[in-house]
């Protein structure tokens, strides 16, 4: 049978100076209700069996004083201030290392004094604290308490103890070599002298004789109890997707910095992300798009799909009108440089569409071209529309060689057609496989792209302007625009 049920066992446990919840823990009681009930009815009343003045030797008061409503109130206040809209919450406590040493001491002591102790599965302090406090904290902030594995909103409550370092110092005496190594290998141990795992390993490799000689055995009542010292909240990232048009030829997709210096004011990313970060109360964000266009290339049509990852957002629920409002704010702030549509919250798993689209989806372009040398013949221009699935060999363009490795890759121009503007100029419409260097296909990049418009037309050609007409990726889903967010025609 599990648990310590003899009066001998009781008296050994009582002589240690355990609080009521630690008494339950060390007798292996796993009925969560028992941990909660105590707090509701008796938390403020010291159990008659135990001395009122002493703080529990096992939990330093965490399951004793710190489960009281007056203490929980501080956590609730911090949480309310943090103002997260998540309907669910998972609470956890981070504990002083001294508690680990004390637990080891108690277990050594009980193993020696009580034969029945080896059958007891001691309830960990963290678990008992959760049973006693989680639900109460959740209710006080109008959220549902849930398990950490499935919950997006995690709250870590710091528990500190003024004598922590002092009580840990015996470890340094016993395991001086290990501490020396930790001090030297700062990077490996992240500069931390005491970690949960490290301490556990050291305690397990300490003989009982060493332990009894150097540590408090069995542990005695602490001079001061542990206390709560702030909460750390974190919410899993949320993702907002949409499509953007870029109407400016002087705007990069992401901030354009060279050696830390800005080359161009603003970017699509900043125009979009700033509004989303502010609205979701997220400190930063990550912008991902289905491919990218050059600074001087416009993106027209239905635009380019993108998604923004917003880490640790405080606000995560939006009704459709809020999304429309955010979209409107982006578009107004962009003053015609860009236009965003189809703004919506997506699930992280949907990002795969962006990644896949980047590789596999085709795009259509319109290029404004000039014939520099030679005669532009109608028959040659007209013949372009007969060419389908033209495979290009493209060496990494000179203009991007400084940031991409030299390679030759094959890309396909699926179809194209040209319209003459006058004797020198023509418009080229083409649909290409994702990743085709279109500018290089037009001017040939000193023969690094083959075939190219010069070889096809038999004249020297350059490109003056390029627009992306469509990105053929049917994601994210279309959202019917409202009157308040008129979409420019392009
Ligand atoms: Zn206790």
Furnish the topology, listing elements before pairings.
Blueprint: H1 7-16, H2 20-26, H3 32-42, H4 69-82, E1 88-94, H5 97-113, H6 125-140, E2 144-145, E3 153-160, H7 164-174, H8 176-184, H9 196-204, H10 208-214, E4 227-235, E5 238-246, E6 257-258, E7 261-262, H11 268-280, E8 286-289, E9 297-310, H12 320-334, E10 338-346, H13 351-360, E11 363-373, H14 378-383, E12 388-395, E13 408-420, E14 425-432, H15 438-443, E15 449-450, H16 453-457, E16 460-471
Helix pairs in contact: 3-6, 4-6, 5-9, 7-8, 11-12
The structure holds zinc ion.
Zinc ion binds at residues 18-19, 21-22, 56, 58-59, 63-64.
Q: Could you characterize the architecture of this molecule?
A:
The protein is of the alpha+beta class. The chain contains 16 helices and 16 strands. Strands 5, 8, 9, 10, 11, 12, 13, 14, 15 and 16 form a ten-stranded mixed beta sheet that branches. Strands 2-1-3-4 form a four-stranded mixed beta sheet. A two-stranded antiparallel sheet has the order 6-7. β6 and β7 form a beta hairpin. α3 packs across α6, α4 crosses α6 and α7 packs across α8. The longest helix has 17 residues. The structure holds zinc ion. Zinc ion binds next to α2.
What form results from the Cα inertia axes? Answer: elongated
Put simply, the count of helices is 16
Helix content: 25-40%
Strand content: 15-25%
Oligomer kind: single chain
Main beta sheet strand tally, sense and closure: 10 strands, mixed
Q: Are any ligands bound, and if so which?
A: zinc ion
């Amino acid at each position: 049978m599990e648990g310590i049920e003899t009066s001998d066992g009781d008296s050994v446990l009582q002589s240690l100076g355990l609080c009521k919840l630690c008494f339950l823990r060390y007798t292996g009681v796993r009925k969560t209700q028992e941990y909660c009930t105590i707090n509701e009815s008796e938390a403020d009343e010291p159990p008659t069996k135990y001395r009122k003045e002493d703080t529990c030797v096992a939990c330093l008061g965490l399951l004793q004083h710190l489960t009281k409503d007056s203490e929980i109130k501080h956590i609730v206040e911090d949480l309310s201030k943090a103002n997260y809209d998540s309907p669910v919450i998972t609470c956890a406590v981070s504990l002083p290392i001294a508690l680990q040493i004390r637990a080891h001491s108690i277990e050594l002591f009980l193993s020696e004094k009580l034969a029945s102790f080896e059958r007891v599965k001691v309830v960990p302090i963290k678990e008992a604290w959760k049973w006693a406090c989680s639900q109460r904290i959740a209710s006080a902030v109008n959220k549902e308490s849930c398990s950490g594995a499935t919950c997006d909103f995690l709250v870590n409550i710091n528990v500190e103890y003024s004598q922590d370092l002092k009580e840990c110092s015996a470890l340094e005496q016993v395991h001086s070599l290990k501490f020396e190594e930790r001090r030297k290998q700062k990077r490996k141990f992240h500069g931390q002298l005491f970690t949960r795992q490290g301490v556990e390993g050291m305690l397990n490799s300490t003989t009982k004789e060493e332990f009894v000689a150097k540590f408090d055995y069995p542990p005695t009542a602490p001079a001061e109890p542990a206390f709560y010292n702030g909460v750390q909240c974190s919410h899993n990232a949320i993702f907002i997707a949409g499509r953007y048009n870029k109407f400016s030829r002087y705007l990069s997709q992401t901030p354009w910095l060279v050696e830390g210096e800005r080359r161009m004011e603003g970017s699509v990313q900043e125009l979009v992300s700033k509004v989303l970060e502010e609205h979701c109360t997220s400190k930063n964000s990550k912008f991902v798009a289905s491919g990218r266009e050059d600074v001087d290339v416009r993106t027209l049509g239905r635009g380019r799909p993108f998604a923004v990852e917003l880490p640790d957002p405080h606000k995560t629920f939006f009704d459709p009108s809020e999304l429309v409002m955010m979209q409107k704010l982006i578009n107004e702030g962009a003053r015609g440089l860009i236009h965003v549509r189809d703004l919506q919250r997506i699930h992280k798993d949907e990002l795969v569409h962006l990644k896949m689209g980047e590789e596999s989806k085709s795009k259509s372009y319109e290029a404004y071209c000039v014939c520099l040398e030679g005669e532009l013949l109608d028959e040659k221009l007209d013949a372009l529309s007969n060419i389908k699935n033209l495979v290009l060999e493209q060496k990494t363009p000179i203009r991007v060689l400084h940031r991409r490795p030299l390679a030759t890759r094959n890309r396909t121009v699926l179809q194209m057609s040209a319209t003459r503007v006058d004797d020198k100029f023509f418009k080229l419409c083409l649909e290409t496989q994702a990743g085709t260097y279109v500018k290089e296909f037009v001017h040939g990049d000193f023969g690094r792209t083959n075939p190219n418009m010069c070889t096809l037309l038999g004249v020297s050609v350059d490109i003056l302007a390029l627009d992306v007409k469509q990105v053929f990726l049917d994601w994210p889903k279309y959202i019917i625009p409202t009157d308040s967010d008129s979409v420019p025609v392009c």
